From TrEMBL:
The protein's name: Glucose-6-phosphate isomerase
Protein species of origin: Aminobacter anthyllidis
HAMAP family xrefs: G6P_isomerase
Protein family: Belongs to the GPI family.
Pathway named in the protein's UniProt entry: Carbohydrate biosynthesis; gluconeogenesis; Carbohydrate degradation; glycolysis; D-glyceraldehyde 3-phosphate and glycerone phosphate from D-glucose: step 2/4
UniProt xrefs under InterPro entries: G6P_Isomerase (IPR001672), G6P_Isomerase_C (IPR023096), Phosphoglucose_isomerase_CS (IPR018189), SIS_dom_sf (IPR046348), SIS_PGI_1 (IPR035476), SIS_PGI_2 (IPR035482)
GO cellular component: cytosol
Name of the gene this protein is made from: pgi
Length: 545
């Protein structure tokens, strides 16, 4: 990394000593702390006032962003420059949500035209499936779709379909990803082949999990309905159209995308077909419009008023300056229960790197461990560690002001009260004196108070940010997901890494290929290390009749 970055980073590290250590005191001394450390874009608000930053921290973080030319890098991404340098590819998932009227040129060609041609074809197919026009081989309407894909070809559609359940008026959607036969077995168990449509989703159409599950699904359809039925029960989404043709799926049911769409950034493309069939093309286009609105905000808002930039800066502060190893994503929104899993791929596959764009070693820690569960469930599981554990783990709370169940408003009020209480508790904590006073007021004996009070102390000063939005509708979900994509991009620029490759998943895949003949008994394990060989031998022993 060059000199201006190093200087800005050193200044930030110095500021770490001075930034507020006592957040309660920071809120008392600045009654407008919330106004100073929150930003909004219409009905979406980010509050990071419960993080240990001050105005100087934010100014230094802005300086750091300028030192890596964040604005120039952002413009390069939107303009289709080949910023994925290790794969020599443009990164244009933003073009997938561009309106028809806005051209995006790549190698002299307007990709918006291709994007909308696929969207139109998907919409026509989705409508046909939803209306019953595209019926099964026996003439029955499709009641269930099964998406077979993994990673980016599964997590996004699965997360978004669940998130948008109130808008779901199409066939039921199921998602099979794991190569564990239990996944497809249990999914097919309740289904009628005559009313089931499989969507085989794979960017490369080579991924072993997806190809194995797809072959099993095809066998199931052939057994139940005969080989001729396959055409009416399969569709595919891929960039490898030749491989799809070889699998035998009719060309009219194949929806393409492009190498400039990364797998974990692909739910806006034809990979979103199961979402579109579930919620209908109109709602799907609202979802795209929401993402586009966030793209405009990211591209144009001043850095310190720009929600993805702010989340990236605060994320960098926590990871690279405060050295916190993880971040918890806690949606107080049950329908976002798959968001943490989706973000694990988006964030960790993008920013889990140790080598910079120029091939050198990174100079700061890079992407954190991302994990989470919905609130309030998490409160009754792992929040103990968030409040009193030895590590500080920044928390990202997400919550909607309004639910979709007006007749259950008391549930929503309790949900929000819990969300706010958790972030307040993390920030405020409870001193020994407060713990003692509380116990004495309850009439507990002083000896008992001496013994127990230390266990009832909360350090406080544990950082959290809150994303608050009006309602989780398709437009808002699009904005939220695009926000997270851009936040990952911002952090990657500060880490100096390429967020768009994923070489780290290759080695395990290669070794699995080599181990299959060992596991199934065709080869012996002698050339493997003694642990691997010992485990294989043990598998064989356990399997022996
Ligand atoms: O796990 C690696 C990966 O390449 C992901 O990046 C991708 O989303 C997933 O596998 C699935 O790949 P494909 O869509 O090509 O089947």
């Amino acid at each position: 990394m060059d000199q201006p970055f190093k200087a800005a980073l050193a200044a930030l590290r110095n500021n770490h000593q001075d930034a507020p250590k006592n957040l309660r005191a920071a809120f008392t001394s600045d009654p407008k702390r919330f106004q100073h450390f929150s930003a909004s874009d219409g009905d979406l608000l980010l509050d990071w006032s419960k993080c240990a930053v001050d105005a100087t921290t934010m100014a230094l973080l802005e300086k750091l962003a300028l030192s890596v030319d964040l604005e120039g890098r952002r413009a390069a991404m939107f303009a289709g420059e080949r910023i994925n340098v290790t794969e020599d590819r443009a990164v244009l998932h933003t073009a997938l949500r561009n309106p028809r009227s806005e051209p995006v040129m790549l190698d002299g060609h307007d990709v918006t035209v291709d994007v909308h041609a696929v969207l139109d074809a998907m919409s026509a197919f989705a409508e046909d499936v939803r209306s019953g026009k595209a019926a099964g081989a026996t003439g029955k309407k499709i009641t269930d779709i099964v998406n077979i894909g993994i990673g980016g070809s599964d997590l996004g559609p699965a997360m978004a379909t669940l998130a948008l359940a109130p808008y779901h008026d199409g066939p039921r959607a199921h998602f099979v990803s794991n190569i564990d036969g239990a996944h497809i077995h249990d999914t097919l168990k309740g289904l009628d082949a005559g009313t089931t449509l499989f969507i085989i989703a794979s960017k490369t159409f080579t991924t072993v999990e997806t190809m194995t599950n797809a072959a099993t699904a095809r066998r199931w359809v052939e057994e139940k309905l005969g080989a001729k039925a396959v055409g009416s029960h399969f569709a595919a989404v891929s960039t490898a159209l030749d491989k799809v043709a070889a699998f035998g799926i009719e060309p009219t049911r194949v929806f393409g995308f492009w190498d400039w769409v990364g797998g974990r950034y692909s739910l806006w493309s034809a990979i979103g077909l199961p979402i579109m069939i579930a919620i209908g093309p109109k709602n799907f286009r609202e979802f795209l419009a929401g993402a586009h609105a966030m793209d405009r905000h990211f591209a144009t808002a001043p850095l310190l008023n720009n929600i993805p930039v702010l989340m990236g800066l605060v994320g960098f502060w926590h990871r690279a300056v405060c050295n916190y190893p993880a971040r918890a994503v806690i949606p107080y929104d049950q329908r976002l229960s798959r968001l943490p899993a989706y973000l694990q791929q988006l964030d960790m596959e993008s920013n889990g790197k140790s080598v910079t764009l120029s091939g050198g070693g990174v100079v700061t820690p890079t992407g954190p461990l991302v994990w989470g569960e919905p609130g309030t469930n998490g409160q009754h599981a792992f929040f103990q560690l968030l409040h009193q554990g030895t590590d500080f783990i920044p928390v990202e709370f997400l919550a909607a002001a309004e639910g979709h169940e007006p007749d259950l408003k008391e549930h929503h009020d309790l949900l929000l009260a819990n969300c706010l209480a958790q972030s307040e508790a993390l920030m405020k904590g409870r001193t020994l004196e407060e713990a003692r006073r509380q116990m004495l007021t309850k009439g507990i004996k002083p000896e008992e108070v001496d013994k127990i009070a230390p266990h009832r102390v909360f350090s406080g000063n544990r950082p959290s940010v809150t994303l608050l939005y009006r309602k989780l509708d398709p437009h808002m979900l699009g904005r939220l997901i695009a926000l997270y994509e851009h936040r990952v991009f911002v952090e990657a620029q500060l880490f100096g890494i390429n967020a768009f490759d994923q070489w780290g998943v290759e080695l395990g895949k290669e070794l699995a290929t080599g181990l299959l003949p060992v596991v199934d008994g065709r080869e012996n394990a002698a050339r493997h290390d003694s642990s691997t060989a010992g485990l294989v031998e043990h598998i064989h022993r356990l399997r022996a009749p």
